[in-house]
Amino acid sequence: MVRPQTAATTSLNDEVRIISKLKYLEKIEQKIEEDLEQFVYRRGDKEKKNKKGIRLTKQLIVDSCQCDSLAEVTTIFLRDKNLEFFDEPNPGSKDSFKFEDMVSLECVYASHNLIRDVYGISQITRLSELNLSFNQIQDVSPLQQLKQLTKLYLNRNKIGVIDPLCSLTKLQVLGLFHNEIFNFDQTLDTLTTLGVTYCLKEISIDGNPITSTTKFKNSLLLSIPSLEMLDDERVQELDREVAQQYFEMH
Description:
It is built from five helices and ten strands; from the N terminus they run H-E-H-E-E-E-E-E-E-H-E-H-E-E-H.
């Protein structure tokens, strides 16, 4: 939305006030879009619950990246494969393999599946990028083993607590929109640690209970001075000024 160019914008206070009103209107528009999206997503979520997913196999991995052997695999593309179990098959089974055989694997894209348990994925400790958006994940604790991750996408899951992600010291991009994150203080502490002590630069957090008001995102803007992107929008200095004024008025 383009900001109106009027004489009222000559002072910072007036400009901040106009920006705040525009953001409020944009928020209403976004909420309508999210409600429609959520309706569609919930209908799909019900269908997912009734589905029986498949287990990860060596053939599925090789086919997804068109490689002849697991040692050659650098990236796995498993979007929308009805995948529920991302772990090693039982030893001795026909399609048996070990994650340790994938010595070159760095990226896994497994969004839009039925994955609930991420323990198997957590054994691939060389991963630098992981996309598990649009799954059924609740517990992210196993992911704390993935110390090399720089990009992690967990959008559209059922995650309530993100504290274990604090150990991901190389993380630069974190996607968490539309989960069930509700604890304001713990979540802010975790994201602040990742952004101030370590290298987190981009956060997507909208669509969670903690973002039902603007307080949380304003807190992020002030707590992480190096934050560059918030909910897919580049952070401007004016955004931080608006956040500062929010807390001065509240």
